[in-house]
Amino acid sequence: MNRRALFLEALGIGTEWVPRHAAAVRAELGDAPASAEAVSLEAPGHEAPGGEVPSHEGPSREALRNEALSHEAPSREAIGNEGLAANAASPPPAAAPAPRQPAIPIVPVMADDGLPLPIGAAIAEPAAPADDLSTLDWQALEARVAGCTACQLCSTRTRTVFGVGDREADWMLVGEAPGENEDRQGEPFVGQAGKLLDNMLASLQLARGRNVFIANVLKCRPPGNRNPEPAEVEQCEPFLRRQIALVRPRLIVVLGRFAAQTLLRTTVPISKLRGTVHRYEGIPVVVTYHPAYLLRTLTDKARAWEDLCLARDVYRQNDPAAPADLLDSPVHDSPRAGAAGGGDAGAGH
Question: Is the pTM of this model over 0.70?
Answer without folding.
Answer: no
